[in-house]
Amino acid sequence: MGFLGGGLTHAEAGPLVAATRSTRQDWLHKAGIDQTRFLQDSLAGLLQQLREADVSTQIGAERHERTADRTTRRNGYRERAWDTRLGTVPLAMPKLRHGTDSPPFLEPRRRREQALSAVIQEAYVLGVSTRTGDDLVRALGMTGVSKSEVSRICEALETRVEAFRARRLETTSPYVWLDAQYVKVREGDRVVRRAGVVATGVRADGDREVLGLDVGLSEDAAVWTTFLRSLVARGLQGGRLVSSDAHEGLRQAIQTVMQGASWQRCRVHFLRNVLRQVPKAAQAMGAALVRTVFVPPDRRAADAQLAQVATLLRDRYPKAAELLETAAEDIRAFMQAPPEHWRQISSTNPLERLNKEIGRGTDVVGIFPNRAAVLRLVGAVLLEQHDAGMAAPRRYFRLESMAKLKPASASVLEVPPAL
């Protein structure tokens, strides 16, 4: 069949469509009509008619119509600004005397989008946006960015994020993962790197949750110790195994605050450290050898395998063999847990998904205007991930496997008194 049921083919209709588009653009230009404004007004008019029709259906009567079965009455209009790719479209939304009517397209942005918008807007208003700041603002469909609008969004986000960060941890968390990501923050006339520290855990019922987050000057022992103590003060208990990389400051903090917990050195990070001691040409072989240490079904077989691998490495790569033997206890601490949990608790990989989600937002911003902006964006991302994890249909670990954990002989979280 031809184009639109006529005799034209798609190839023949192409020039006609292009000519029509050119004619329309010429007409708008000659009439002195801005195309973007024209589209905004057209969109606003269409949505206005749709909302009037929806409200009439909900009420059971048209405007100025009297019916016996109407459910409520109109009560004027409220002005709403709808951010779109075309820019900010002003709308006059009908109000009801009883009940509410919120159209789907005006639903509040997701928390992470609100946080990202707030950070970019704040940077824009403060004049510290990056080279692409203006493009980002326009890409998000924001116009007329004002300080009052920034303050309103930031205040709402800070309330949610702070409530999330300060909430009471009600249940025990046998497994805890710790990690940090660095972001760039503007402080005065300098741009500095700051560490965003994050803790996640698995509760006794097998569900995952985000335990806390903070932003520190660096990833040193003081920052991690303060952070872990804040988790304990909020109710963190039952920690049996803490998985992290081998950052010295983090190790010291774990030993200070979580004295009875075992420390699992992330085997993925450890493997990278070992391969640095092996020539590039032999790294594939070295990686295959070291991975066999984590395969045996029990600790006794793992001990024998580690000794064998260290012997094979010692003649040609003594530093790699020494590193393997030195870290023997730390890289196999996960074997005290039920085998069903080994894959997840032997590394910090469960945090990698969170880090990627955080990275998506922080990469867009580039340089944050201040520390509070970091907490807003990262907190909003983690709050979303936390809610998604808690609402997941399947638990991270099955209850049957969690029941295999042996009861702790004593509390493993003992916070020494502050000096």
SSE layout:
Elements: H1 10-30, H2 35-59, E1 74-84, E2 87-96, H3 111-126, H4 133-139, H5 147-166, E3 175-187, E4 190-202, E5 208-216, H6 221-233, E6 241-244, H7 248-257, E7 262-265, H8 267-275, H9 283-291, H10 299-314, H11 318-326, H12 328-331, H13 342-345, H14 349-365, E8 367-368, H15 371-390, H16 399-402
Parallel strand pairs: 3-6, 3-8, 6-7
Antiparallel strand pairs: 1-2, 3-4, 4-5
What would you say this structure looks like, in words?
The chain is α/β, with parallel strands linked by helices and 419 residues long. The chain folds into two domains: 14-106, no CATH class; 172-402, no CATH class. Helices cover 49% and strands 16% of the residues. The strands form two sheets. Strands 3, 4, 5, 6, 7 and 8 form a six-stranded mixed sheet that branches. Strand 1 (74-84) and strand 2 form a beta hairpin. Helix 3 (111-126) packs across helix 4 (133-139). The longest helix is centred in the first third of the chain and has 25 residues, at 35-59. The protein is elongated and about 90 Å long. The chain starts with 9 loop residues before the first helix and ends in a 17-residue tail after the last helix. 28% of the residues are buried. Mean pLDDT is 77; it is low at 1-6, 124-133 and 409-419.
**What's the rounded overall pLDDT mean?**
77
State Rg: 29 Å
Shape: elongated
Record field, number of beta strands: 8
Q: Tell me the number of helical segments per DSSP (H or I, 4 or more residues long).
A: 16
How many strands, which pairing sense, and closed or not: the largest β-sheet? 6 strands, mixed
Proportion in helices? 40-55%
> What order do the helices and strands follow?
HHEEHHHEEEHEHEHHHHHHHEHH
Percent strand: 15-25%
